[in-house]
Amino acid sequence: MILISEDKNSIVKIDKGELVSYKKNGEEFMHQKGNPGWRNSDTEMFPIIGPTEANNFIVSTPKGNYNQDQHGLLRELDYTILHQDDTSFAFKKKYAAYTAIVNSKYPDKSTVRLVSWPYSFSFQKKIELKNEALKISFEIRTEKGMPFMLGYHPAFMLQGNLDEIVTTKKEKISIPSIINGGNTAYPILNTDEVKLIKKSGYNLSIKTKGFNDFMLWTEVSNMLCIEPITAYPYTGYELLSKELFNTSNGVDIFEVQITPF
Fold this sequence. Notes:
With 261 residues, the chain is mainly β. The chain is 2% helix and 45% strand. It has one helix at residues 175-180, and strands at residues 2-4, 10-15, 18-24, 27-28, 42-45, 58-61, 64-67, 80-84, 88-95, 101-102, 114-115, 121-129, 134-142, 147-148, 151-157, 165-167, 172-174, 186-188, 193-197, 204-209, 213-217, 223-229, 246-247, 251-260. The chain has a 9-stranded antiparallel beta sheet. A 5-stranded antiparallel beta sheet has the order 5-15-22-21-18. The protein is globular, with a radius of gyration of 18 Å. This is Aldose 1-epimerase.
């Protein structure tokens, strides 16, 4: 699936709902599958963010305790296409409450074979290409009161020289600092925009609506995950405590805009 901007300068490629390429004037911004670092280019984390192994893969909800592996079960479901036009694609995943889903991490990276959640939900992802930016939006429909965490997990291409920096209004973060952060990722709290600044080529602004925080993760010099999240899960306190969860309004909408500059 391909989107081309009206001015013909930008092109996006999508594979089964995954954003696998975003180019402007020939420059690729997304991490490419097969390169060192990560096996994907983007994914979503829902209904939880973070690891659950330390709590025997159990997450507590108002309807009881249920098995969830790292970053939730949404990634185990397949997208179906809802809509397409010249500038956008919309995709949807649906889940029926209590349905047991086979955990793809089992048995190599997890001891839990089946995961489930006590709430039904539909999850929509829309990818819209404009001349100046790429917008990714999410719509979550479920019963009011469902606890959830949401994270968008895109991976961006770096040049491999460890000289890029991530900036906010208050700080500048180097790639070595992010690598040193390890698996708990580097937190950026209470902000709706970060910028990836490079020595050459386009810089990127990642601006959000609905998310509270970001976390940054990489283990390599050629890739960086800049992840908008509703809450940073690695708090050092009770794993996935109630305070980390949003409460559903029935319909909740989140947006991420990636702007080259």
